[in-house]
Design a protein that fits this description.
Radius of gyration: 33 Å
Number of strands: 12
Distance between the termini: 119 Å
Helix content: 25-40%
Structural class: alpha/beta
Largest sheet: 5 strands, mixed
Strand content: 5-15%
Number of helices: 13
Mean pLDDT: 85
Length: 346
C-alpha cells in the first residue's frame, strides 16, 4: 500500500513538471500582434490607383477619369496614338480620317461626319466619359460641353501658348498632348517613349542640315502648287525655325491655308531652291475621287518651270508621308523628320 501511494505521488510530480515546461515554452514564443493601422492603410494606399487626373488643356484645368470606358475622339493628332495604345473609342469623325484606320473600319465605332457638318447628336448618344476635342473640331468645344455636361471635355489644341513661336508651339504641343494622353490612359511610359523619339528625330534632322542650302516647301492640291510659307505654312512652316532652315523665298501676308498660299510656279523656279519639301494634300482624302487626284510627284515632275531648279535637277525633293494631311500625329512628324534627316544627309 505504501508502495502504491509512492507511485501515485511520483506520477503527479512528473505531470507537474511537464505542465511547467509547456508553460515556459509558450511564454518564450513571440506574442501574435495585430498589424498596426499605419501598415495596413499604407498597403491599401499603394494598391489603390487614382481614378481621376487633373490635366491642363487649351481652356484651363480639367478633371478627367483615368482609363475612361467611353471615349469620343475628334482630334486628328491623337488617332494614331490612341490606336497604337489599343484604346477603344465610341465615335470619331470618319470623314476626315484615313480609310484604313482601325477606328474607320470598325463598324461598332460611330461616325459623326466631318467638321463642316458634324452630327454632334451622336456624341450625346454615345454618353461618353471623355471627349477629346482639337484641331478641326475646336470650334465646337462649347457646343459639345453643353451636349454632354457629365463628360470631361478636353481641347488638345497644339497652339495653346500665345507667346510661343510656331516651332516651339508645334514641338511643345506634341509633347504636352502625348503626355496628357499618357496620364489619362495610364500609358506614361509609352508617352515618354514617343517624346524621346520626337527629340531624337529633331536632333537628327538638325544635324543633317548644312546651314546654307535653301529650302522651299509646297502643298500640292488639285494639280496646283501652293506655297507653304516659312513659319506660317501648313505642316512645313514651323520647321524652318525648328531646324534653322534658310528659306528660298519669303513673301508678305502669308497664311496657314490648307492648300497653301497662291504663288506662281515661275516665282518658285526663280528662287532656285536647293531642296523642295512637298505635301500631297489630296492623296489621303477619301472625299476626293481617285480620278480627280493628281499625285504630287507627277505635278512636280511635269512642271517645266521647275526642271532647271537645283532641287529638281539634283533630285533633292522630300515628300511628306502620304497620310500627313489627315494624320498630323506625333508619329507622323517623327517619320517626316526622319525622312528629312535621311535625305539631307545623303
Amino acid at each position: 500500500m505504501r508502495k502504491f501511494k509512492l507511485t501515485i505521488i511520483m506520477a503527479i510530480f512528473v505531470l507537474f513538471l511537464a505542465a511547467c515546461g509547456s508553460s515556459d515554452e509558450t511564454s518564450n514564443e513571440p506574442e501574435a500582434t495585430e498589424p498596426e493601422a499605419s501598415e495596413t492603410s499604407g498597403e491599401k494606399e499603394e494598391a489603390t490607383e487614382p481614378t481621376t487626373v487633373e490635366i491642363t488643356d487649351a481652356h484651363g484645368t480639367v478633371t478627367v477619369p483615368v482609363n475612361p470606358k467611353n471615349v469620343v475622339a475628334l482630334d486628328n493628332r491623337t488617332f494614331e496614338t490612341l490606336s497604337d495604345w489599343g484604346i477603344e473609342v465610341a465615335a470619331v469623325p470618319k470623314a476626315v480620317m484615313l480609310s484604313d484606320s482601325p477606328y474607320v473600319t470598325d463598324e461598332n465605332v460611330q461616325d459623326i461626319g466631318n467638321h463642316r457638318e458634324p452630327n454632334l447628336e451622336i456624341i450625346a448618344a454615345a454618353n461618353p466619359d471623355l471627349v477629346i476635342v482639337g484641331q478641326r473640331f475646336s470650334g465646337y468645344y462649347e457646343d459639345i460641353k453643353k451636349l454632354v455636361p457629365n463628360a470631361a471635355v478636353i481641347d488638345l489644341n497644339v497652339d495653346v501658348e500665345e507667346t510661343s513661336t510656331p516651332g516651339e508651339s508645334l514641338v511643345n504641343g506634341f509633347k504636352e498632348t502625348t503626355r496628357t494622353l499618357g496620364q489619362i490612359f495610364d500609358k506614361n511610359d509609352e508617352a515618354e517613349q514617343l517624346v524621346a523619339e520626337l527629340d531624337q528625330a529633331i536632333e537628327k534632322a538638325k544635324s543633317a542640315y548644312n546651314g546654307t542650302d535653301t529650302i522651299m516647301s509646297v502643298i500640292v492640291s488639285g494639280g496646283d502648287i501652293g506655297f507653304s510659307a516659312p513659319h506660317t505654312g501648313r505642316v512645313f512652316g514651323p520647321l524652318y525655325e525648328i531646324f534653322g532652315w534658310t528659306p528660298a523665298l519669303e513673301v508678305d501676308k502669308t497664311s496657314t491655308d490648307h492648300q497653301g498660299d497662291e504663288i506662281s510656279v515661275e516665282a518658285i523656279a526663280q528662287s532656285n531652291p536647293d531642296w523642295i519639301l512637298v505635301l500631297d494634300r489630296d492623296a489621303p482624302i477619301s472625299g476626293v475621287a481617285e480620278d480627280e487626284k493628281v499625285p504630287a510627284q507627277d505635278v512636280i515632275d511635269n512642271s517645266p518651270a521647275l526642271q532647271n531648279t537645283t532641287a529638281v535637277s539634283e533630285g533633292q525633293i522630300v515628300y511628306a508621308p502620304i497620310d500627313t494631311y489627315l494624320n498630323e500625329s506625333i508619329q507622323t512628324f517623327i517619320e517626316l523628320f526622319d525622312n528629312i534627316a535621311d535625305s539631307l544627309a545623303k
